[in-house]
Specification:
There is one protein chain. The chain has 20 helices and 27 strands. By secondary structure, it is of the alpha/beta class. The strands form 5 sheets. An 8-stranded antiparallel sheet has the order 3-2-4-1-10-9-11-15, with helices on one face. Helix 9 links the parallel strand 18 and strand 19. It binds 2-deoxy-2-amino glucitol-6-phosphate (AGP). The site of 2-deoxy-2-amino glucitol-6-phosphate has 16 residues, from helix 9.
Length: 617
């Protein structure tokens, strides 16, 4: 997805800070980058296809003057190929307005025709250049008031946008606006800034204002005034983000993904340990959760909806709920829900799970449920995200910023939060006794030290051996049962999205209903065979694979020689209760996908074609 960073200060040169902020957004995926300043009544722009480093080289040779105001953008091509002329920032044809924009202006073609008829000339294929010309065309009508011209323009466009604009007439103020695309405003010392994502501004401030849909704001070095769609001033509390800039940086790791895999034991503590209420064998959520026992008893079912990796955690949310609270759960792919028959909401609670809180499909599903009178609990990792602000109830995972496009620690945090949620529901509905609750809390509390063995030299060696099997194949199968069926699916998604090797995750019981036809010496299987109700069945599956010359990478409990003797490589994991095995078993599969992708020289943190947050449907 595109990235926006902008700042306006009292004096000095904000360009280095803005470009540094842009770099923290590289994980979102992009194909070009650009910056703009306003100096001496003129807009100056530099923009290049390729990585930010290419833009920096250009600036080194063809620099811009120091400026207390700058706009910057990384573009993920939608309208128009990745070419310099299509890169942002875009100006109108008279260089009066400059804009950076995330999202899609759906009616840009007819707007462009009207503007061309009025004499505007275009040099790019983008919807953003149309927007810049539209705003400029309205400046005169609004006596040079950029904010008014933008508000008037936005009444004429359809689609999603997060934008920052500046006028050649005013070098110490910028205008921002958002609709269905995230934008945050930072309040710094003698400087105000804006970005599509908080980590981009952590080098400038940790105090933020979040714009709601349809709002605009005027930023000057000492102020930010937010306006609602009716141009009424809005007051909004400042939110303090406790992420340090370092947390958002790599911390010495070669990739964000590896750092985030290894942060998972800490994530367990961050997501869970302040919420454990041993005295009652229960958990206590923050006030933003807002669902008391009575409400939790009223729901006849919980319906989980999400996309991608979050969909896999939703599958486990259902299993935890049925296991701990004996309450039926449904799981729906959020994009599929949007086109399903509009049934009555009834007494269901919908749980929308989204690490970013900005996934378009998941947000639309939330709004659809709410439009039918349903209530939504959002499980999310980003405070101030759209899901955090629009859900009726919120459970944050507190994992810290997840930068790698392939979700790892956020998934782990989701599983932890869903485990706690199911325990809370079970205790509220009195189907889980205090003693049973205490046992589940104890299992969770004792999990953290057990995870250390997954990061030992022996574990790393086992991952390398397993990678020897997968790194050279074109396709493979991940199998799991029960709590580990979603983990098989997640392991397959991890491998395919960063190594580009085709991988499918299946419930192991399905193997003989089709996939077994694929198995031969060139088609390996990753089988999760840890202790539990389905262990013997998994061992049988492994034997069936071997009988057809298929190679097996097994996930097995430490010391399990029965499985190890059957497998070509074994990823040992600590022995834990079956209901905690998903949190343990996913880690070696994440490490395996990382090792394979890295060995193949893939861009682990920014895999091709992928974005960290899919903010368009
Ligand atoms: C995760 O590895 C993927 N990059 C992707 O499937 C992701 O989980 C999906 O886009 C949902 O994102 P969300 O959790 O931010 O809603």
């Amino acid at each position: 997805m595109c990235g926006i960073v902008a700042a306006v200060g009292v004096d000095g040169n904000v360009l280095p800070a803005v470009i540094h902020g842009l770099k923290t957004l590289e994980y979102r995926g992009y194909d070009s980058a650009g910056v703009a300043i306003v100096s001496d009544g003129a807009i100056q722009v530099r923009r290049r296809t390729g990585k930010i480093a290419v833009l920096e080289e250009d600036l080194g040779q063809n620099g811009l003057p120091a400026s207390p105001m700058a706009l910057a953008h990384t573009r993920w091509a939608t309208h128009g190929a990745p070419e310099d002329r299509n890169a942002h920032p875009h100006r109108d044809h008279l260089d009066k307005v400059v804009i950076v924009h995330n999202g899609i202006i759906e009616n840009y073609a007819e707007l462009r025709t009207d503007l061309q008829d009025a004499g505007h000339e275009f040099t790019s294929d983008t919807d953003t250049e149309v927007l810049a010309n539209l705003v400029a065309s309205l400046l005169e009508e609004h006596e040079g008031d950029l904010h008014a011209a933008i508000q008037s323009s936005l009444q004429r466009v359809h689609g999603a946008y997060a934008l920052v604009a500046a006028s050649s007439e005013c070098a110490n103020s910028i205008v921002v606006a958002r609709h269905d695309s995230p934008l945050v405003v930072g309040i710094g010392e003698e400087l105000t800034c804006a970005a599509s994502d908080m980590p981009a501004l952590l080098g400038l401030t940790r105090d933020f204002l979040v714009l709601e849909n349809g709002e605009t704001a005027v930023l000057t070095p000492h102020s930010c005034q937010i306006f609602d769609p009716n141009n009424q001033p809005v007051s909004r509390d400042i939110q303090h983000c406790d992420w340090t800039p370092e947390q958002a940086e790599k911390g010495g790791y070669p990739h964000f993904m590896l750092k985030e895999i290894e942060e998972q034991p800490d994530v367990l503590a961050r997501t869970a340990f302040d919420r454990l209420h041993d005295a009652e064998g229960d958990v206590v959520f923050e006030s933003e959760f807002g669902l008391e026992d009575q409400a939790l008893c009223r729901f006849s079912r919980l319906r989980f909806m999400a996309m991608g990796t979050s969909f896999h955690s939703a599958l486990l949310g259902k299993q935890f709920l049925e296991e701990f609270a004996q309450l039926p759960g449904d799981v729906l792919n959020a994009s599929e829900f949007l086109y399903s028959p509009k049934l009555k909401e009834g007494d269901a609670l919908t749980v929308i799970i989204s690490q970013s809180g900005e996934t378009a499909d998941s947000l639309r599903a939330m709004r659809e449920v709410q439009s039918r009178g349903g209530k939504v609990l959002g499980i999310c990792n980003v405070r101030g995200s759209t899901l955090d602000r629009e859900a009726d109830h919120v459970l944050l995972t507190h994992c810290g910023p997840e930068v790698g496009v392939a979700s790892t620690k956020a998934f782990f945090g989701q599983l932890t939060a869903l485990y706690l949620l199911a325990l809370r529901v079970g205790r509220a509905r009195k189907v889980l006794s205090k003693e049973q609750g205490l046992a589940l809390l104890s299992d969770l509390r004792h999990l953290r030290p057990k995870l250390d063995s997954l990061f030992s030299d022996e574990a790393e060696e086992a991952v390398r051996t397993a990678a020897d099997i997968l790194a050279t194949v074109d396709s493979c199968l991940f199998l799991g049962r029960g709590f580990n069926h979603p983990i098989a699916m997640e392991g397959a998604l991890k491998l395919k999205e960063i190594s580009y090797i085709h991988a499918e995750g299946y419930p192991a019981g399905e193997m003989k209903h089709g996939p077994i036809a694929l198995i031969d010496e060139s088609f390996p299987v990753v089988a999760i065979a840890t202790p539990g109700k389905t262990y013997e069945k998994m061992v049988s599956n492994i034997e069936e694979v071997r009988a057809r010359s298929g190679k097996v990478v097994a996930v097995a409990a430490e010391g399990d020689q029965k499985v190890a003797q059957l497998a070509d490589a074994t990823l040992f994991v600590p022995k834990v209760p079956e209901h905690l095995s998903p949190l343990v078993n996913v880690i070696p599969l994440q490490q395996l996908s990382y090792e394979v992708a890295n060995r193949l020289g893939k861009d682990v943190d920014q895999p091709r074609n992928l974005a960290k947050s899919v903010t368009v449907e």
